[in-house]
Amino acid sequence: MSARHHSALTPVGLFRRQFFAAPFASVMLALLVAAGAFLATALPRAVAAMHTAALAEHLADFPARELDLLSANRSALPDLGPSSGGTTLADDVDALWGGQEERLLAIGEQMPDELARVSDDPLQVVIAGPNSAKPDGAGPGSTDYVLYAGFDPRLDEHVELTAGAWPTALDAPPPPAEPEGEPGSLPMPEPPTAPAPSAKPLEFIAAEPVAREMHWEIGQERSIPLGTASQRVVLVGTFAAKDPGDGFWTHLPVPLEPSVAFTADGTLRITGLGFAHPNSWAALERSQLPTTLEMWFPVADDRIRADRSAELRGDLDEFTSVGYPVGSGEWDFYFSTVGVVGFSSGLGDALATAAAAAGASDTVLATVASGPIGVMVAVLVLGARVVFERRRQGLELAAARGASTGQLRGILAVEGAVIGVPAAVLGAVLGTLAVPADGGAAGLVIAALFALTPALLLVSSAPALSPLRRARADFATRGGGRVRWILEALVAIVAVAAVVLLLRRGLATSAGEVGVDPLLAAVPLLLALLTCLIVLRLYPLPLAAIVRAASRGRGLVAFLGSARALRDPSAGVVPVLTVVVGVSVAMFSAVLLGTVQTGVDRAADARVGADAAVAGVPFTLEQQEAFAAVPGVEAIAPVYATDSIQVGIDGRLRTTTLVVVDSEEMRAVQAGRSGATPLPEGLSETGAEAVPVVISKVIADSIEGAEEVELDRDAFEVLGVVDGRTAFWPRTSWVLMDRANADGFVGTFVPDRVLVRFEPGADAAAVTAELGEIAGEGATVTTPTMLRDELASTSVTQGLVVSLIGAIVLSSLLTALAIVLTLVVGRPARERLLPLLTTLGLRRRGERALVAWEVGPVVVVALVAGALLGVVLPFVVLQGIDLRAFTGADQQPGVVFDLRLIGAVLVGSVLVTGLAVLLASRVGGEASAARAMRKEEEG
């Protein structure tokens, strides 16, 4: 015996010969395992990357001041003094600001780890003002110039000089003399008086637009009030921001551009900011200037990761719940040095909102994915069965020659491991490389399960290897016995209970806290399984009628095919489940996609509130008149003010935003628009004791049950409550008032948002372009179409669209594969039957028709059932899914059936299924009659 022949008889050689004797089934099962492992590792990573991108988009909507860890102290003075160990400040600046910076750095070292990771070193700035700074000789009624003076110990890190020189420091005044008194007696403290202004002017620099708008030339002096006297100030240079997008600028009242507004008496007021030398503050700290000391730790939002947001929120709560000593806290009559301070941040609320949106998206993705997951498991079962049937004869021969069940299971386990483990490793590696993100260990665990699945499925088939235990499928009991009835009843009870619980619970809004809702995710698959069982129970009834009708005809194919489909059906639970789930998932995904797209359209229209909205900078009266005069513009409606206001609730104060509009102008612009904020007719009535307003639901909930409520200490009457945001203000907390009643609540009416209505048939692009030219640099013109594109391009919405399309494609492909595998499993029976029928005169076309009869009837019924389930699913599942994260709206969108999209998906499902049946009908039938006669008979 040659060495080569001997090696072929070894266990390894026999296994190799067995594998290559019918490799198609094993290769196909390996591809399924690789695909499953790829999806198991890639999808969690893609979801994590989507959440991180969505979180970044969400945080980008907030100014840095709302996210930073801020301590703002009105009228508190810095605790000036040098550091003990040195800082990175310049030596002369460290001599005054170093000690306070050192204490802030020490506070930063106490931050919890995750909060410290996303935070930068502290910053501090003193803002003195607002201070009237009119030119010398300005008369009554002239333009009012207002100056804020900033003192920033790290000024040179934020600005660069563009003209002139850097400011120099004022000399600090001498300390107050010790009070005189009798020896041994306590001196009587005297109220401090404002120090005499320095003879040297206070030097400062300003941004170029500020200096230009305030008509302040370099070297020109003006005066600002200083108690009962005045202090000369001089512009010595201009600057530009090193990084205009730096969050530092959001902490300043009017950072880089001046504010141009009109006061209530019609006076033009121009407000700007200038920076003095930080050490000049020592000369002015007791000057009785209105002062704000801000200290904050900047938050680097690009370091914030969605998967760590829960930990970060916990760190925020821990850090902001404690007070930290920054200075002595000493009082000297009207002056107090900063002492123990607390820090606050809106980052926690922003993270909570983002977590809720992420939880909603996870719930939707899990719900959509549950169907394809069930189909993939079913296809894996079919694939393992195909492999087993390919190995049955050889293993039965081994069993007949004395191989034990354990040995047979070992052979099947080895082949399953050879198929599953390398394929799963390859799929997991490709999934890991495809998406560079951290998806956690869950995906790898699922990939490991996929690796073991072929071995487990093949080993479970070992007891059926004895040819003595074969049974004729067409002699089986049609009802399936008591066990089948019990299992089907259990599935029905679980599915109905899940639906009832889901409908009773309603919309799930806590997914960000508790994760994916397993009940909600399982409902589509449970309903699909229940539908599958109903199909298997009911489809024999019409099929029996077809058999009776065909028996009266003269054709063989229809009668024999329908009779075999009724007595020996190839389609069991697995193929029917794949068809029902595949079609229903495709239909449900199409409905969900249409619902989200329609919701985005409606949200964009409601948030813009008009044909166009011009916003971003204060608009002068001339600009407003120019907007109205643009050809194609029918009407405009400015939002005259969005100022902070206090709502008194039984003695407690709540800060919100007062929105001021002219209700008549706004109704003219928003006439006929769905989603427009209701503006009651009584909103513009004046003279009543209580001012009429419309409030948001957030404010309505906060004042519910209160005995005494006030708006800036004035009574108000609520004419309407609106849930969510309006086109006038992007937050959910607001109070809306007509301009006719707003004089006592708002000092200036300078709109930074104007809504525009186009004339019918106007060229929207041309009108939008001209509005943008009038608005100037820094302003934006937004139309509903623009906002719709923006909302549709968000990471969450794009992720949902890709997931839905992927679910449709994957379900369709798996459905087709399941049909093919079902007929492949039935190939041995056909190889015994079809050659014999061929010798009796059956042609090739008839053979294919008989093959199609094996799955055709049940597939048609399953297609119809799946389509009907796909129509019902949205009304059930969307009762528990919060889609607002995808649409950008404040209200849950209603179910929308896009007939074109649904029709395309349904036609695609029918075509894919039909092609699968046609392809599978060509499998088998090549065996000769002689070979068929030699095959072992059933039973």
The general outline is elongated
What percentage of amino acids are in beta strands? 15-25%
Main sheet? 10 strands, mixed
Q: Helices and strands: which structural class?
A: alpha+beta
In total, how many domains does the architecture comprise?
3
Rounded mean pLDDT score: 80
Characterization of the model:
This protein is α+β, with helices and mostly antiparallel strands. The protein has three domains: 21-53 and 353-602 and 794-934, no CATH class; 64-172 and 197-345, no CATH class; 612-781, no CATH class. The protein is 51% helix and 16% strand. Strands 1, 3, 4, 5, 6, 7, 8, 9, 10 and 11 form a ten-stranded mixed beta sheet that branches. Strands 16, 17, 18, 19, 20, 21, 22, 23 and 24 form a nine-stranded mixed beta sheet that branches. The protein starts with a helix and ends in a 5-residue tail after the last helix. The model is unreliable at 181-189, 509-514 and 927-939 (pLDDT under 50).
